[in-house]
């Protein structure tokens, strides 16, 4: 009997929920119901002014509108001018972009953007939407992650309009096209795709647009979310789109024929397609002579190889191939390790994890405190570890140099990838020594060969080999030699300038 009453009660509750949901759907088709729904939020304002020449209802979200605009450009005119229709608002208010509509989707969308809703009668289905959003934008600052001694110091901010302005003033041409779209079911984030018409390959542009249009995700908080969702291989640790906070880099890659994605609320732009060599090229290289830029690029590439391989080679040699160590160095190594109870692999893992802990702690703490923690913590822990016999002096020097070498990578995401791939190399070195390092290198090379960025080869110009793109890869040759755009981009206009004219040196009298 109790079971019968319980089932009956549940049926009544479910039927009442269905009835209430049905009534809500029917009421939700009116503007009056939409406003009543917004009233449940504490920051929604809805009031009636009967004392003006034409009584009106006004509604807005107080957290989204600029109060100064409301009291300076909207309310004074509504309180003094006799209006017979919503159409007269266009000429009465000194504000552009006044929308008159009865479409509930448009009304809801514009209210959440900071528009003010105006009605003469609360039951009317039509209303006027007046722009009054508050514009709080972080001021332009120096690019922190890609800081350069030479060249512009401006960096992107979280405002899409400001970022577009920074790019437009560097490329004041009609060929620069901006395709905007709204993404995220909850966040409603505005995303812009930039490219140069007549230069960028249409296939690259269409690939980006199609992937963005097919993307279904509830919240697009930052450009990093898009970079992961539209990547060719989402399971790879290697970034397949470059992120940058420098407007000059964005303008430069657009001129090459690449595609750029800007996201409202993110200070980083996404660049694609990209190859692995681009991650080791600082944009500051283009602001110094080509000899210095080439030397620094070679140093960076050597530093990356050193950072990945030096600790695994130490573990492999000490564990399996100690015959390769010179006699003079063997004495020093034996003296350094005689008080260390741990095998080389555990010794190396302890030091690598300690370095990563210090680096992560320094990055998460405030700048001043983080710098102090990194320096003092490294000195204290390193000294204590050697004196306690946990690690040897030689390994401490090696891991410190490897950590410094990883910092030479200009792009932070690639630097993080290099930090991570050291650990598989360490494990392979422990298993099979130098042969294990070779096996790990084969796996890494195979993965990079299969990797693509927007369908373009990731290892270009190494594979497929393209000699023309080597002019701006491991080294940077003079600008006069770079008369064509990168071949792997397949730009519609390959020629950048006439090579003969670039090499001519005219006399001042001519």
From TrEMBL:
InterPro entries in the record: Spore_Ger, UPF0353/GerABKA_families
Origin: domain of life: Bacteria
Gene Ontology CC annotation, any one: plasma membrane
Keyword line: Membrane, Transmembrane, Transmembrane helix
GO biological process: spore germination
Tagged with keyword Lipid biosynthesis: no
Bilayer topology annotation: Multi-pass membrane protein
Positions of transmembrane segments: 298-320, 370-388, 394-413, 425-449
Subcellular location: Cell membrane; Membrane
One protein family per Pfam: GerA
Family: Belongs to the GerABKA family.
The name this protein goes by in its record: Spore germination protein
Origin organism lineage: Bacteria, Bacillati, Bacillota, Bacilli, Bacillales
